[in-house]
Each structure stands twice: as C-alpha cells, then as structure tokens.
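thought: fold this chain, then report.
action: predict
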Amino acid sequence: MDNLGITRRSFVKATAIAGVSAAVFGLAGCAPTTAGTLAATGGFKPGTYTAASQGKFGPVNIEATFSESALESIVIGEHEETKFISDRALTEIPAAIVEHQSLDIDTITGATLSSMAVLNAATECVKQAGASDLPGTYEPAAPSSAVEELSGDVVIVGAGASGMVAAVNAARLGAQKVIVLEKSCTIGGNALVSGGYLEYVNAPESIRETMTESYRRELADQLAQAREAMPEESYQQLMADYEAWEASGSDAVFDSRELHALQYVLQGEGTWEEMIALANNVDALDQWLVSSGFQFKELCGIVGYSWPRWASPQEGTCGQGYFMFYQDYIAENDYPIEIYLNTPAHELIMEDGTVVGVEATGADGTTYQVRGEKGVVLATGGFSGNPDMLREYNTLWPFTESSAIPTTNAFGHTGDGITMGLAAGGTVAAMDVQMPFPFADCQNSTDETTVGDDIDCVIVNKNGERFMNEVLDRFTMTEHIMEQPDEVMFMISDADTCRVNGEVNRYGHNLQRLIDQGQLYRADSIEELGEMIGCGGTTLAATIERYNEIARTGEDPDFGRTTFSEESPIENPPFYASPRTWAMHITVGGLVADINDGYKVLDESGAPIPGLRAIGETILTSCGIGVQGEGFAVAQALFGENAAD
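observation:
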C-alpha cells in the first residue's frame, strides 16, 4: 500500500488509500523521551527476535530488531488479518512503536484486534531482548479545539459499498469535488467482511451454473405465482424472456431482471416497485463494472438465496476486490475525491429547513463543518452493531437486556445515519426486521472461516441430527438454530462440497490453523468426524446416510428441501465439520426514501427533506453488496444527464 503525504494543517502523514486524496488522522503525539528510562528497562540484548500474538483470524507474526539502546525496527510477517481493515494497524502501529520507543500506543479505531496483536507481539519481543519495557514515552496530543470548514459538490457520509460507488460515479459524471466522511479506519465497510456476492443477472453463459431439474422445478413454481405478484406488463416481459431462453436451447441457468425482482417479492423482501428498482440499479452497476474491466468469478447461490445469480470479484477475497478496483479507477482518472477516515459525522447542518452539510469530528478532535452544494448523501449502513438499538426496535428475536448480541458487521455500523436523518425530520419503517446470518463463526461471528458450500451441504446440531431444510431463508434458519443445543450447528461437507482450495478455504484462511483454533474439524471418515464433534460416529454416520439417500433422489420428505446437485451426497473424503451459529447481519428497516426520485429522504408527511438523500442499509429494505447499485443511481440523479439543477 502506498504512502500519501497529507500536508493540511494538523494532519499526520500516514498510510493512506492509494489513489485517493484521503485525510487520515492518526498517531500524533510527543517525541520519544528516553533520558533516565533506559536504565530502568535494563537495556537490550542486541539482535532480532520474533513473536506472534492473536489477531482477528490468527497469529500476527512480527520480527523486531534491537540495538543496545533502542528498538530499531519492526517487520510484520505472516498473518491472516482482513485487507483494508488491518492495513493501517499493521503499518502505523509498528512505525509509532519505533518512533516513540513506547508500547503505550493508541490502537487504530476500527482495527483494534489487529492493533493489539502487534502491540502484544512487540511486548513479547521486548522481553526476549532482556528488558521489561521500551525506554520512551508516548502521550497522545490534547484533543484539538479547531473548527474547519470544508465544501464540495456533495458530501457523502460513509465509505462502504454504496457510499464509495456514489463517490466514484459522481466524479465520473463530472463532480468537481466529492467529500466522503468515514467513521472507520478504511473504506469498504461491511463489504470487506462479506462474501462479496453481487447479483449478476446478465452474466455470460460461461460463468453461469447449469440448469438442473431442481432449478427447473423451483422456477416453474415461481412462474406459477408470478402473475399475482407483479404488474401485467412486467409479467409479460418475464415470460417473453423465459420463452426466448427456452427457444435458445441454452443449458445455463435462466435469469432476468424481472425474475430477480420476483424472487425477492416472493421471499418477502419488499414490494414489486422496490425490488424491480433494486434489480435495475444492480444491472446498471454490473454493466458499468464489466465495461470498465472488472471481472467476476463463476456464479453460485448463497446462504438464504439459492438461485445462482451471485458473483464475487475475481481478485481479492470477500468484497475487497471491489475496493481494489475503485482505488485503481480513482487513481487512473485522477478523480477529485477526498476521503476523511476516522472522522465520524454526528449532526446534519440545516438552514431554513434545507440540509446543507454535516458536522463531523476528526480523530484529533478537530470539528469539521462540511457543506455540499448538492446536499448530503447518508450511506452509513444499518445498526446490526448497535445492541441497544437492536433491542429498542426488536419484535422478532428473544433478546434480553443482559444477553450479548453477536454481529458479523465491521466496526461502525451503529445506525448513525438513521439517527441523523430522524433528527432532521425523517421517518423510519420496518425497524424490527432484523436479519441474522445463520452461518456465523462460533468464536468471532464472521463468515470468512466457513468451510462448506452454503447451499449444498448438510447441517446437523450438536447431537448429530439434521434439523432443517438447509436452503431456507435466513430468518427461518436462525429460528431453527436458536432451538438447538447451545444454538450451535455444524456444516458437514466432503471433498466435493467443501469449497476448499488446496490448504485454504474459499476466503484464503489456512485450514490447519482453523483446526488448531477449534474452528474446523477434518477427518477421513464420517464416523471419525462424529467423534470429533462430540455426537458419536454411529449417530453422524446414520444421519449422513439418510441425507445421502434424500440427495440422490432429490426428494426430501423429512424437511422439504428441493435444491440438490450431483455433488450433494456427502461421500468423498476428506470430510469437514464447520461449527456455526447465528449473528446479527442486516437491518432491513431504515429511513424512508423515495427510490424513484433520487433517494430523497422523506418526512412524516411523505415530502422530501431538501438537500438530504440516503442509500444502502441506511434506508428501508436495502441491504447487501447490491447497495452499490443505489450508489450508482444516486450519483446519476445528482450529476447525470437528467439531474436537477
């Protein structure tokens, strides 16, 4: 990652985002003080020492070199921390330790676990070098009382999936200055810790799955319900597309924008108007991405959404590939985008009933009053990371005041944009529709440690019993999981369904490390696997034998599952058990916005609040990587050919 010098007053030179004019506040403090302290530490045994300390996904290894009087350097070695999220912690923390000769360095907001891993490993190296501490001191600078005024064509609050696309597309369409305020230490938001799956309706046949009999049955059932679920004109378009596909003789899975919207309507995701807008926006985004050189992997189904229209970036893991692409795209075109990291917005600036800007606070305490000529776009995500807010609106889940509510979310998703929108006169809806992720890691609540195909595996509880249809919606699966012993399940897969690539899982995490950390079990027989997970080999073998009979016939009298493939039977070693549970993932409710009029936020009377727009999980019914389509659309509304003056 490149270093970008920031010369603005009170900004610190820090590792920034390549190609992005990013204002990064960080580790400003006093110069190291060494007089009188070296003797107390006992000096150092010169040499190079190694240590490791646990980060989010595994050990972070470091190599530290000492002279007799100082720690001279720290080099970060092997680790499995998440790209973007951990980048600043793995560069700035070592640099600050060496600069200040102190272990009392502030962690990076949004990357606490990675920061602590470096600090703990450095502490161990100091001990190996024969000292109890480093000789210097670090004292954070006193909070700044400065107030700075900034202005641009538009202010975007949030640099996640929807916010970054809005910024890039606004600049592409001619915006002269786009200011983005981000609460965390990096761009990317939840997309960095998601599977990175984006709906790709018009994907080429070369990356589509084959249209199996189970897919045909599923489609036939949906088409039978279509006429009652969508306008007649849309129904006729759907059937025309389907008949053209049939006539073509293609063996690739059928898809269309109308089918995309229909499936969401039938699953209860939203109204036809909302879902067809989503489908159209995502399709426009896909076309722009591909035409700009972006490449996708083969399509598949994902947890709770089994129709195989989901594509992830060819480069990177999880959703990181999108932001690698956006960085390069910004740099190549020299777009005027300024991103302020670790700078949370907390209040909209209103004048005569119009939103004209937003107030935010930098990491050093500086207050920023940021004005946008075309107003403010809220793109701060939902509130799955805010237990109090989840409890306040919850009507679905058995949360208590004392119970922990795990979340898959990255740092910062606490409903800030919703709160600011409400304070400006906005209104919310469906705030109790809180979607868990039913396949979360039991230790760290992530999806990234998963081994097994999301829609082509068998799931058992701690007793080794199958207890549900594995391709249900996420709400229903979570209900079933909550009824199981310790609310734990195991995804059972084999060599054909594990989605393993050599010695790493699909997200690049080392299998042996997952095994060593108790996040995965692997065996050469089902009986051995059953003993490992504690249910007994005979019990698990009987469950898998029954499941295999069902998978081979495609008929599931036990739980009603209809989606199977030729690889569904679990029979080819090695066999894997991936322990999973539920964690809060998406909040479907949010600010009410007019999706047909540039995502303007509406007040209680249904009138737009001048100068205020919102996108992504900040608004009603919007969620997932597909919110990038809304970012694309809101930029079109603000700066496209038909943009209002």
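thought: worth noting. The longest strand covers residues 575-587.
final: tokens above.
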